[in-house]
Amino acid sequence: MPNKVVTTPYPLIDADPHAFRVVRYFRSSDYATWAAGTAAFPAALYFWDMADPAKVRLRTSFRLGGFLGFVGGFLLAYQRSSFRFWGWSENKREEDLDLAELSQRAAEGKPLYGTSSQPEWVQGTAYRNSAWSQLKFHAFPMFNFVNHQHHGTDAAKYGVKEKESSD
């Protein structure tokens, strides 16, 4: 199955970034989004209760609202960070971090995106399942936890040389 090529206003860093990498590249604005989501849900419940008072205690509702806000805020922050990896929003900081990180891995002779004990077909399936999954968080949150080689970028920009084939 060919990769979908999307024209973006900023350079593509990684078409399917590993979940830990997305979180490592969070900006302070992503953390602020996460915090705002965490606070907004129980605040909305509080103001709703002020407008239409309930005759029951809302402690459990506020706790559940805080948890749902925490999860929703994280998903929104994760999505914002993923958009920068895809080149959908300004990503100069991430581009510089990516170049430094992967160039160092290439200089050390390590695989750019890590190694995996999974067979190739499992890695391909994991890629196909997690590619664009950040757009579907509302239905089924799915993250990429598998190291694979399907990232849609040219490894030569990190200093990786192609292996010579021996015929």
Description:
The protein has 167 residues and is mainly α. The protein has helices at residues 19-24, 28-51, 59-86, 92-107, 120-130. Helix 2 runs antiparallel to helix 3 (59-86). The model has no long low-confidence stretch (mean pLDDT 84). The chain is elongated and about 70 Å long. It has 5 helices and no strands.
In short:
The chain has helices spanning about 20-25, 30-50, 60-85, 90-105, 120-130. The chain is mostly helical and about 170 residues long.
Q: Taking all residues together, what is the mean pLDDT?
A: 84
**Helix-strand topology string:** HHHHH
Structural class: mainly alpha
Tell me the strand percentage band.
under 5%
Give the distance, in angstroms, between the N- and C-terminal Cα atoms: 28 Å
The biggest beta sheet reads: none
For the secondary structure, the number of strands is 0
Segments where pLDDT lies below 50 for 5+ residues?
none
What overall geometry do the principal axes of the alpha carbons give? elongated
